[in-house]
TrEMBL record:
Name of the protein described by the UniProt record: Alcohol dehydrogenase
GO BP of this protein: alcohol metabolic process
EC number(s) from the headed UniProt entry: 1.1.1.1
CDD domains, per database record: ADH_SDR_c_like
Enzyme type, top EC level: oxidoreductase
Gene: Adh
Pfam families membership: adh_short
A GO molecular-function annotation: alcohol dehydrogenase (NAD+) activity
Source organism superkingdom: Eukaryota
Coiled coil: none
Subunit structure, interactors included: Homodimer.
Family: Belongs to the short-chain dehydrogenases/reductases (SDR) family.
Amino acid sequence: AALGGIGLDTSREIVKQGPKNFVVLDRIDNPKAIAELKALNPKVTVTFYPYDVTVPLAETTKLLKTIFAKLKTIDLLINGAGILDDHQIERTIAINFTGLVNTTTAIMEFWDKRKGGPGGIIANICSVTGFNAIYQVPVYSASKAAVVSFTSSLAKLTPITGVTAYSINPGITKTPLTHHFNSWLDVEPRVAELLDEHPTQTTTQCAQNFVKAIEANQNGAIWKLDVGRLDPINWTK
């Protein structure tokens, strides 16, 4: 979801840094946002491909083949799709967990050093709920915990694959995601309001710290991006 919420602000910050290419994969085409990113830094080639993370693995691989054929090298994959709606159990798991696993699995075909690949870097956007659940949305929180765990395993597999990984875990950030959302079995109808009573951060603050984490490029790091700060988390294994 590179064109909404935290994703769009992070895209802005990354483009400002001036990578040669910036490829946006998103379910919804947002020509206005793409045009804005292109205008931000004319040195960066910004391209958009429609992509839904819930498609089968083979379809993701096919899209990546197209992208790799065009760009030859891709250094960093950011997995950022997510939904927060504990009424939609299967969709939450499909987007927040399965989709991320499939996209990661698909890119391994191009990056894995056992296949002669150059390696690569994966930044997975998880959430502080991955290690500190919002218990009223247990499905969402568990899907994020799964991704934190998956990412930590990826980092330990680096000696085998040549691919490094770290997780980006935003705290409560003012995004459309948190305005109103459904708790599991409606255990707490006011969950969004209760959440808003906590200290929050802006998407810009979050995005700026995200770029700092990308620059740090620390394999296995579990970064907490909360109340405008960037802190490493020591997660008990």
